Amino acid sequence: MSEAKTRTPGAEGPLAGVRVIELAGIGPGPFAAMLLADLGADVVRVDRPGGPGLGIDPASDVTHRNKRSVVVDLKAPDGPARVLDLAERADVLIEGYRPGVAERLGVGPTPCHARNPRLVYGRMTGWGQQGPLAQRAGHDIGYIALTGTLGMIGSPDEPPAVPANLLGDYAGGSLYLVVGVLAALHHVRASGTGQVVDAAIVDGTAHLSSMIHGMLAAGAWQDRRGANLLDGGCPFYGTYETADGRYMAVGALEPRFYAEFMELLGIPGQAPARDDTARWPELRAAVAARFRSRTRDAWTAVFEDSDACTVPVLSLREAPHHPHLAARGTFTDHGGITQPAPAPRFSATPTAVRTGPALPGADAEAVARDWDLPPASLPNPAVHNPQ
User: Fold this and answer.
1) Using one digit for the tens of pLDDT, what is the confidence trace for 286-325?
2) What residues contact residue 348 under an 8 Å CB cut-off, 6+ apart?
């Protein structure tokens, strides 16, 4: 067993000492639990027999790093009792079932709070716990579509562009669940009372668009794609193809940054004024033609030491090698996997990738010991062994 595997969970980070139960799911729930684990919490993932069935090797799923895993069959007669035993000793429980499923399984908020009134019970769903769509299946793309945010993204003459599942699942879902959990933990320490956190992706994603709604109300935003300052409608805030079929990203919004951008691009005085929106298409064409004259790397060198707010668009494999990200350690290698390092950073309680992805059921004995449970309370099935 590696040194990292034998270190005390939660020994690093500002959430050291906080115990979290994650009822296994996919997407935003695991990512939220990973963030808590990265911050130092002792996260125990309760996996189901057979796993989630996504066909992903558990040894490569970095959203399960810094966690430990036990396997519990919640449909078995003694399954709910095993989870309630954990809940009695936990500070936080996270689940991502459809509304009512946790209750039917016997691990909903009522029995959990009966055992532990201080528990923060975090619920991660797409549609929320109430509303006409609460019982409907869904995925990130549907949640962001109904909130109006998907319709903002992309070119006006093409279908809306799909931003992977970053905007809904993780920004509007996971991060809001974590904010809610941390706020509820603060309330527990002040009042001694736990509560339920209802984190719905539709709520969080809508909340992310608050500034845009303010601009819309003020008449400073048009309710259509590609017509605004920050949605690609502005010719000095967008992406441009280079001679080698790659792209540069331009964000030269302020006048002084724009002036430097135009000077380095090589067409100052040869393009329409930046504030003449009627001539933005003409300005865009001039900028696009200039970018197509050189490769991405050549333009990167031109803008590298400037305040023109112009940078190359990198791929996932390229990003870790960028000099700035490499100098900051934005990405890290652990167990042979290059992955984003924990964020944000703390001056007094630094975080780290302490362990690789938790393998289903591998930590039953250690969790029983550390959480003061009877050794037989958590089964220890044969576990996945990548060797």
Assistant:
1) 999 999 999 999 999 999 999 999 999 999 999 999 999 9
2) none
Q: Tokens for 191, please give them.
A: 């009042």
| pLDDT for 5 | 40
Residues ≥6 apart with Cβ < 8 Å to 232: 154, 155, 225, 226, 238, 239
d(Cα 331, Cα 321) in Å, to the nearest integer?
Answer: 9
Give the pairing type, strands 310-312 and 331-334: unpaired
The pLDDT of residue 4 is above 80:
no
The pair of three-digit structure tokens given for residue 297, joined into one six-digit string: 């790397």
Q: Which two tokens stand for residue 296?
A: 């991405």
What is the set of active-site residues?
139, 169
Residues found in the chain: 387
Q: How many other C-beta atoms lie within 10 A of the C-beta of residue 131?
A: 12
CB distance 47 to 360 below 8 Å: yes
Residue 347 and residue 335: Cα distance in Å, rounded?
A: 26
In whole angstroms, what is the distance from residue 143 CA to residue 148 CA? Answer: 9
Tokens of 253: 């919004």
Query: In the numeric block, which tokens belong to residue 317?
Result: 């494999």
**CB < 8 Å & 24+ apart, contacts of 184-189:** 184/120, 184/122, 185/18, 185/91, 185/92, 185/120, 188/91, 188/118, 188/120
Separation of alpha carbons 334 and 353, rounded Å = 7
Strands 19-23 and 247-251: unpaired
Angle, CA 370 vertex, CA 365 and CA 376 arms, to 5°: 40
Which has more pLDDT, 188 or 386?
188
* Prior bond of 357 cis (ω within 30°): no
